[in-house]
Design goal:
single chain; mainly alpha; 12 helices; disordered N terminus; 187 residues
Length: 187
């Protein structure tokens, strides 16, 4: 029997130092720890904890208010212009910058901050996806774009912010209601 969110028994056995049968007994006993682990953790989270002693998506959560504050500081247009300019700074990405410029408007309306967050997530995740040895130069180029963008907006986005960005995107309507993310900043 696989766990609800497909956790690997081997990881659980390493964390708890017990057998697969012990985990199944705990589940039958309805121990709260089994529900907690199945509901809120993935194999990746648990393996990261075993490898590093922490789970970065939880350790970095204090950045959420900072990122929300930043999202209210600039308009969607300013974010889009900054990220396009950051891509444009590097020959390898000039074509993509042109593509983004053309895609910045949907049916005559400027894309909102949600779409910007998707692009930022793509940039940060894209850097990690190409972080293999055979793609090292591409990864370094993404890092240059990220650094250029950060310099333009006066913030320090990095790969540790990916879970926060994903969380804001998944609850965008709530944050937009609470923080007026899509409204222009007040001068």
């Amino acid at each position: 029997m696989r766990l609800k969110n497909v956790l690997d028994y081997k990881i659980l056995m390493e964390i708890f130092k017990f057998s697969r049968q012990s985990w199944n007994n705990w589940k039958k006993e309805n121990r709260p720890i089994t529900v907690l682990i199945e509901k809120y953790f993935t194999d990746k989270d648990l393996q990261e904890f075993l490898d590093t002693g922490k789970i970065s998506k939880f350790d970095n959560i204090e950045r959420l208010p900072e990122i929300l504050k930043l999202l209210t500081k600039y308009t969607a247009k300013e974010f889009w212009e900054s990220i396009i300019a950051a891509y444009s700074d590097f020959d390898e990405f000039k074509g993509y910058a042109l593509f983004l410029t053309q895609q910045m408007f949907i049916e005559g309306h400027l894309k909102d901050k949600f779409d910007f967050l998707k692009e930022l997530d793509y940039l940060l995740v894209g850097r990690l996806d190409v972080f293999r040895e055979d793609m090292k130069n591409v990864s370094e180029e993404y890092l240059k774009v990220i650094n250029s963008f950060n310099k333009m907006i006066g913030f320090d986005f990095n790969e540790n912010d990916i879970p926060i960005i994903k969380q804001i995107m998944s609850r965008y309507e709530v944050y937009n209601t609470l923080y007026d993310l899509d409204k222009a900043p007040k001068d």
